Fold NADH-ubiquinone oxidoreductase, chain 4L.
Amino acid sequence: MLSFYLYLATAALLLGVGSLGLWRGPELLRRILALNVIGAGIFMLMVSLAYRPVLYGEPADSVLHALVLTGLVVAVSATAFALALLGRLLARPQ
């Protein structure tokens, strides 16, 4: 049960740090990275909610794990797209 609270605390910490980075400055790269940190916090929260204590004798919820894996793929592709757009934005003539 201690690991459940550890995962929840880590998820809350990631969400807090990502939110702080999102509203801290106007830099676009910082905002993209902050959104990635917030996404990691949400994924950590979903994995911790999928945990079932050993006392019940049930395995972890596999649907939430599948959603996290799908979310990771979508997050990586969205980050690549956002970084490509940022590169084009910075490379254009002023």
Observations:
- Residues 2-91 form a domain with the Helix Hairpins fold (CATH 1.10.287).
- The chain has one domain: 2-91.
- The longest helix spans residues 62-91.
